[in-house]
Amino acid sequence: MIPSSPKKMSERSAKARKYRPTSPSTFILPTMARKSSFLKQALAALLLLFALYAFFSAFLTPGDPSPSSSTGDPLSVSRESSFPDVQPPKFPPPVRTYMYDLPRKFTYGVIEHHYLARGGHAPPSDADLKYPGHQHMGEWYLFSDLSRPEADRSGSPVVRVSDPEEADLFYVPFFSSLSLIVNQGRPAGTAPTYVDEEIQEELVTWLEGQEYWRRNSGRDHVIIAQDPNALYRVIDRIRNAVLLVSDFGRLRPEQASLVKDIILPYSHRINTYNGDVGVEKRKTLLFFMGNRFRKE
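Structure tokens predicted for Exostosin GT47 domain-containing protein:
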């Protein structure tokens, strides 16, 4: 057998590598892929246009009545049902509060004894008595506010009621913090005529005799004891009440807590602000520093 020459082998290889026409089916897949991509892009563009139309129709079209609403346009009906008119916020009703008409010795009587203990003379009427300024004056502010005519308290979140049956809360306006310091300014060598511990006991005895205190064991009653030592003798007997205190430093967990009681700020720890809205026009507390520096 005579072997083929290298020249003939190279000619056969070249013929084998010669270009052969591709059948029409070879072009089908790329063409279909391009058409599918174009359809997807067109569909995405249509969806985007529809979304933009719905957005502008729902949020930027004025709410005037249009012919479409009267002709029953489905898009208009759907838009109106999906975005109802926003109602204005509703504020809670004011708290109806009944303030006890305590015996005088628990209110103006405390102020009078404070006068007398310092060598002063009692004014002819309670209207002339001035509550002495000190760091626990919240008890006076609450009492004087609730004592004003309701016509002067328009817009207040608290409404004073004269019928205890209508009350949500019962306020006990005892000047407990002032009572605690009545004898502190007494001149040396003079016998005290006022005993705070006895007044505390008399107050609670009076309260326990009231029908509305007994009804809920005092749980709907509000008592202010802003000085940490105020009402210390009877605190266990009034612990069910809502206590207005400065802190819980001298109160046990079963006597007071944030669950039922309220922290009042020290007025002397609030810096005076004289900006565009001064103290007289301010409706809310601007700054509160609640840390008291104790002596012990």
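Residues 95-269 form one domain.
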